[in-house]
Design a protein that fits this description.
Helices cover 35% and strands 28% of the residues. The protein has three helices and eight strands. The chain has helices spanning 3-9, 51-73, 97-117; strands at residues 25-28, 31-34, 37-38, 44-45, 48-49, 79-89, 121-127, 136-144. The strands form two sheets. Strands 1, 2, 3, 6, 7 and 8 form a six-stranded mixed beta sheet that branches. The chain has a two-stranded parallel sheet with strand order 4-5. Helix 3 (97-117) links the parallel strand 6 (79-89) and strand 7 (121-127). The two termini are 21 Å apart. The mean pLDDT is 96.
Length: 147
C-alpha cells in the first residue's frame, strides 16, 4: 500500500487549495522543498505547553506539509522523505525539542516506512518565538523517485 492510501486510511484528506501569498512547495529537479508550515496551536513549550501537545502540533505541521506536497505533485506515492527541519517555540530551559518534532517524523514514518522511504535526516531546534506565536514550525524536503 502506498503513502497516498495510508494517508487516506488515517483520515488525512487533500482538498484543493487556492494559491496563497507564498509558494508552499517548490519543485527543483527531482526535489520538492516546502516552506515552513506552522501549527494552529499557539504557545511555548516549557511554559504552558506539554511535550505531548508539542508532538500534536508537529504532527499538524506534517499534515499541512503533505497537503502542500500533494498540491504540487498530485500524489504522495513515489516520494522519499529526505530532510525535516523542526522549529519549536520554547523556553531557554526546554531541551526536548527532538521529542516534539517526533510528531512530524512519526507521521512520515507511518506513511512512507520507518526503514524505507520515510527514513530521513532531521534537525530539531528551539526558538524564542515563531510566526503568529505558533508552537511548532516544520519544513521538509522530498525526493521524487524515478525522476
Amino acid at each position: 500500500m502506498g503513502a497516498e492510501q495510508k494517508a487516506k486510511d488515517l483520515g488525512i484528506a487533500f482538498p484543493k487549495k487556492d494559491k496563497g501569498y507564498l509558494n508552499l512547495c517548490v519543485r527543483t529537479g527531482n526535489l520538492l522543498m516546502t516552506s515552513g508550515h506552522v501549527s494552529d496551536m499557539k504557545g511555548k513549550l516549557g511554559a504552558g505547553l506539554s511535550v505531548e501537545q508539542g508532538v500534536q502540533a508537529a504532527r499538524e505541521c506534517a499534515v499541512k506539509i503533505l497537503q502542500s506536497v500533494h498540491d504540487m505533485h498530485g500524489t504522495l506515492d513515489g516520494l522519499r522523505v529526505l530532510k525535516l527541519l523542526g522549529c519549536v517555540n520554547s523556553t531557554l530551559e526546554f531541551t526536548d525539542q527532538h521529542l516534539v518534532v517526533n510528531g512530524a517524523s512519526d507521521l512520515f514514518h507511518q506513511l512512507f516506512g520507518k526503514d524505507d522511504l520515510g527514513y530521513h535526516a532531521r534537525s530539531a531546534l528551539g526558538f524564542a518565538a515563531l510566526p503568529t506565536g505558533a508552537a511548532v514550525e516544520v519544513e521538509a524536503i522530498f525526493e521524487i523517485m524515478g525522476s
